[in-house]
Amino acid sequence: MPITTKIRRQGGAAVMTIPPALLKLMNMEIGAQLSLVVSDGQLVARPVQDSRKRYPLSALLKGADIIRELNAEVGDAQDGDPVGREIS
User: Fold this and answer.
1) Topology of 7-47 in CATH?
2) How far apart are CA 27 and CA 88, in angstroms?
């Protein structure tokens, strides 16, 4: 089913709106980036794939408890006065 939209001027740019139903069909949301190309006189819009891998917070914090324990175990070595000819 074709969807019709109108090109309008906003500032110095030509702007067209994308209806929410079309965004949903493309699995996109506001703020997503599109790659625009002209192929055989037709405008083709494709989602830009984000090259940055995204991690959930739980994955980023995985192992944080182990690091905290290791830091606590070597904490005594980080404190205290020099015992030899260390450079301070």
Assistant:
1) Pemi-like Protein 1; Chain: D (2.10.260)
2) 58
Q: Are 34 and 48 in contact (CB under 8 A)?
A: yes
Domain ranges of the chain: 7-47
Contact 17, 36 (CB under 8 A): no
The b/e string for 54-83 (b: 16+ C-beta within 10 A; e otherwise) is eeeeeeeeeeeeeeeeeeeeeeeeeeeeee
The answer to whether 5 touches 12, Cβ cutoff 8 Å, is no
Identify the H or E element spanning 23. Answer: helix 20-25
Q: Each residue of 29-82: pLDDT tens digit?
A: 888 889 999 999 999 999 888 767 788 899 889 989 998 888 888 877 777 777
